[in-house]
Amino acid sequence: MEKSENTLQAIIKKAKMGNQIAFSMLLDRFWNDVYGFQLKRTQNENDAEDISIQTFSKAFDKIDTYDESYGFKTWLITISKNIHIDLVRKRKRDILGTDGGSNEAVKKVLDDAPTAEDRLITEQNLATLLQYVKKLKPHYQEVINLRYFQELSYADIAEQLNEPINNVKVKLLRAKKLLAEVIKNRS
Predict the structure, then answer these.
(1) What would the CATH number be for the domain defined by 100-186?
(2) What's the mean pLDDT in 103-112?
(3) Longest CA pairwise span in the chain (Å)
(4) Model confidence pLDDT, tens digit, residues 75-91
(5) For labelling alongside 131, which of 50, 113, 119, 185 has CA 20 to 30 A away?
């Protein structure tokens, strides 16, 4: 146990220095813990996933503030819990406030259809890859499409999705991991 704890601290130290592989390792190691925690709280897969993405985004953005005297998982769960509380408060305000925002949400969902399909079908390998990508949830499809098929930068994707850059990075990490699992299970 002590060896794995030392390894975890080494990974965290690398993440504090901006190492993207370390961030990916932390995401892989703790995703199920945070997601499972939120799934129990929200009882909604989409909310649990969104909150988990926001959790890792915020954690990676503020990793310099992590105090090693506390467990990393505990730190992540605390961030996750606070994000959920903020979300619940915001939803209560929205319900009590005006209804104008809900129409925008519907329009945003309807606009998520991929536009590059026709172009990708011309090459067989890309068409096969696209079929795998289509097995992902729409928000993961979109971020992969923007990054790898439209070749947008993280900043451009963040602007287009109206999300912080760290959210985009976490979504992309998660999307790549899920895509790899889909491809592995199909082979």
Answers:
(1) 1.10.10.10
(2) 44
(3) 55
(4) 999 999 999 988 888 88
(5) 50
